[in-house]
Here is the input.
Amino acid sequence: MKLKLLTILALTSMPMAALAMPAVGDLVGTDPATATAALEKAGCKVNEFEAEDGKIEAKCTDTATNKPMEVYIDPASGKVTDIKSED
Amino acid sequence: MAAPRTPAAAPPSLWDPVVRITHWGIAVSVLVNAALDEGGSLLHVSLGWLVMALLLLRLVWGVLGPGEARFSAFPPNPVAALRHLGQLASGKGVRHYPSHNPAGAMMAYAFWACLALVTVTGLVMTGGATPMQVADEKAAVASGDWSALIKESDGESSEDEDNSLRHTAEEVHEVVANLLLILAALHVAGVLVEARTMRRNLVAPMLLGQRRK
Here is the structure.
């Protein structure tokens, strides 16, 4: 019973954890509209996209901390390759 | 092996135009890229390519240029460099050299090694993209088209390897860029100490200088 409760708690808290920020390897899409929606769902509100070093750099704001972040996306696979906090 | 010199020899009262242009072009570009612009921006990449071109020009000039610009006039000699620094510190026995003094020579070689490393790692990070390609990519992405960035030769298998190489290049790029700023500070300090001890203006010959007699 206790285990079941824990499992439910763990499962229900997962979306909260996912809201923290996107992670490297996440598939967010290969076009601006899809990636904007995916990143926003993952907890980073997109301000703009830029090309940088052959990757897409999404300048977004971490909705949990309000910090500006840089999320790098592979334009071919649509996966997140790197995440940095903006200096 | 002592740096070649003659008793009456002194550094040029005016360095030749290639030495001066490469010196100041690289100095300004490095400072702008280190402190003012954003890494990966069009200006940053353009200045990186300019630095590479100026560095190559200076290295070719080290073989083909006039006497005082040639590597043979200031061979790398750490022992002589330390001796020169010791003489500067004590104020005794400081000599004039027909080109860079031995400490200045070591600084020049250290600068060139760092500049070569910083440009090569920059090229790895950008995948060798020229400023024109970078401008096209930025314009495409700004207009919402991401397909312009997709390289046809990119295979899924080499993706991780490529990313890891770029990460390493980025780390080296940042460390060497900081090292360049430290070298620049030491270089300026060296020029000030040398100018004071030798009672000689070293900036003017590198800037505009007096007319060659």
Q: What stands out?
A: Chain B is about 65% helix and 0% strand.
